[in-house]
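agent: user wants the structure for Nucleotidyltransferase from Oceanobacillus luteolus. delegating to structure tool.
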Amino acid sequence: MTSVPTYFNDFLRNIRLTENQVDDLITGHSTLRKRLNEDEDLSDIIVSTFLQGSYRRATATRPKNQKRSDVDVIVVTRLDKDEYTPEEAHDKFIPFMEKHYKGKYRIQGRSIGIELSYVDLDVVITAAPSEVQEEILKSDSVKTVFAVEELEDWVLKKSWVSPEDRIENQLFFGSKEEAEWKTEPLYIPDREAKDWKPTDPLAQIKWTWDKNKNTNKHYVNVVKSLKWWRKENNPESKHPKSYPLEHLIGQACPDGITSVGEGVTLTLETIVNEYLSKPFMPDHGVPEHDVFGRLTDEEYEAFYEEVKEAAGIAREALDATDISTSVEKWRKLFGSKFPAPPKSTKNQNGFSSREEKTDISGGGTRFA
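agent: tool returned. relaying tokens verbatim.
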């Protein structure tokens, strides 16, 4: 049975960030980064700023219940982690926050959160990188604001050129002589642990880009679909969500999938068959870090039961022999954002004609 691709196109359009939300995110992070780079007290200690998180990885979904869109901004500094405590590192940025975001920021365990009327920003400070890493962190391949979905030729090379600086329609894979850069963890301040903890957001971005390529560009849409399923069916659940959920989806989603519906179904079934109990999930770039470390066994057991039920519904939807049954099953899984089945007359094969062509390239995929 077909996985009703046009219906999935409309569904994905309905759960993506809207153009206005994307514009708000661009305004928020662009203004923040410009202010940081021009600040008299901070500019000398800032190596680079770049985007991370679901926004950069193109796995973000539309917020629900009046929540704002959010974006994570990494601020790579020259602060020596052996000379500055996590608290002292955050304190360096308080005068800047008081000047530009007074009454709108809060110091968090590992970051500084900024709540604006239209967007939430999460500022993640890092300690000084190695000299070799410092050079690559200043490159277009790191600082680009284009998302995974928008880049057909992205590589972690200093010679890679961002799309806005190219000749029209040019692809640019970087210098053939230059080896692709091997990422190194960056260290972020953990105020609760009173220590600096390793993280590798660029390894996460690169892994996502490679995975999307290996799944015929369906992977990020599988992630968005299953994140929405989680929001729709258990909005109050705390774990797993956000990146831990995305990481598990990445491990379970097979390469070579030919549609989003197939990817959703096989991912859910793989979790059911291969992850019966809470697994250890090594983080990309920092394998000693367990992405599921904060998830309790009880929380995973409850999540696993939800996945089992969802896997059954997805399989029924994928295997249905008529379009209406298939669509109704997908709607049961994803809610009303998935388009209703057609009311028009069915043809002899049981499929309703769908004349409208849907473009899923916009509505939240632009990052600049």
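agent: one observation worth passing along. Confidence is low (pLDDT under 50) at residues 345-368.
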